[in-house]
Amino acid sequence: MQLEKLQKLIPYEYDRVPLFRRRCDEKGIKPRDLVTLADLAKFPFMKKTDLRDEYPYGLTAAPMSEINRFHCSSGTTGKPICIPQTANDVEIWTEGVMRCLSMYGITKDDVVQVSYGYGLFTGGLGAHYGAEKLGCAVLPTSAGNTERQIMLMKDLNVTVICCTPSYFLHLATVAEKLGVDFRRDTKLRHGIFGAEPWTSEIRKRIEEISGITAHDIYGLTEIAGPGVAGNCEYCNGLHIWEDHFYPEIVDPDTLEPLPDGEEGELVITTLDRTGTPMIRYRTRDLSRLQTGTCPCGRTMRVMDRVHARSDDMLIIHGVNVFPSQIEACLMKVPQVAPHYMIELSSTDTMDRFEVKVEVEPNAFSDTISGMETIRKKVSASIKEIVGLSPIITLVPPNTLPRSEGKIKRVIDNRGK
Ligand code: DLL
Question: What pTM did the predictor assign?
């Protein structure tokens, strides 16, 4: 089925998207050369800079009469990227989210609060359409106005919340301040979290503080939005909806395909989308396609949770460090809260590497000795796993910035 779809998609793209045709011609490859699935690796990659360079319509394959929605994602600089989609593209995306929700055990009896932002970001409308299609009652709060979110959650008997994991942690802090206990005062049972890397340690913290089950939903604007993959009840990774999204893992340096079981950059081809199809799109997300079968019985392949992006990697004192590693080290110390910042700056001679982390309210004290014990634990945890000794600054509860959407945890001022 994947091969049949690819054999339609490649000529469709070749005929309609000049950039793709030019790249194929340069490589001396023709659509008819796709005879087996393995032949896909002969075709050129697409990447974010292509979308930026061809902004806004250069990679659009369908005529304007068929385009029915735009979503954009912000670039780090200048213009955003823009993904025009057909009604069928939106339908495929909706189905991906619906399948995820159903896999998480959500049914039409659930009340789903969508606290992802609505608009050009795909989180809000993606979760909304998927939940509505499943027959749930949807509460489209969008992001922000946290106290009102908590009031509505209580009053409307919300059972499912969709938001970034970092926003849920903020919501939990505000709920505590308002005297709202999720277990006692709400019907909340599930959280559908994604849009940013989050470690299993944060997942555990979320489940402990709220009593809900935290589910992982993965996706990106270029490929659809949320709902490209989600975890099953075994939480052993995320099933990719492979009938719509064809995954590959490549070595991020050589770009050669890697066998299942090896970590590299996730590359996705959209098998059915016709508005802005993506062929071998380099996501920059680091993952692995797992080998073997999943005990849940689903046969769609499983990718590891995305713990980092290749462009997130920091090189500090010559050591490669991912923010998620720091997060995992911090979460090993129960006295610190899941709110932290990594700050880097440089002097003439060396990098300054500081980790600021909030102390849990019940562990916070104004005695130097009490704080010093926690600081040493944090320092030892980072030293053991990352091999570096950053400056550790413990800060009082609720003092670091919070975000309503994707959180920015790294400030890198080196070389500025
Ligand atoms: O973040 C789509 C989305 C919305 C996914 C809501 C899940 C929930 P973009 O803004 O284009 O789209 O950002 C996509 O976010 O390449 C990953 O780096 C990261 N990301 C998304 N989901 C996860 C996840 C949306 N579950 C980028 N785990 C992707 C880790 C994630 N990273």
Answer: 0.96
**Distance from residue 165's CA to the centre of ligand 1 (Å):** 11
Nearest CA to ligand 1 atom 28: 197
Domain finish residue from 292, 311, 330: 311
Q: Where are the beta strands (DSSP E) in 25-136?
A: 67-73, 81-86, 111-114
Q: How many domains does the chain have?
A: 3
- How far apart (Å, rounded) are the C-alpha atoms in residues 224 and 234? 25
Q: In the structure, what pLDDT confidence band is assigned to residue 66 with cuts at 50, 70 and 90?
A: very high
Instruction: Check if 224 has its Cβ closer than 6 Å to any atom of ligand 1.
Output: no
Ligand 1 center to 201 CA (angstroms):
18
Read off the DSSP letter of residue 291: P
| 109 and 251 housed in the same domain | yes
Report d(CA 225, CA 228) in Å as an integer.
7
Specify if 408 maps to a domain: yes
Q: Let me know if residue 59 belongs to a domain.
A: no
- The model's pLDDT over 314-358, given as tens digits with 9 standing for 90+, comes to 999 889 999 999 999 999 999 999 999 999 998 877 889 999 999
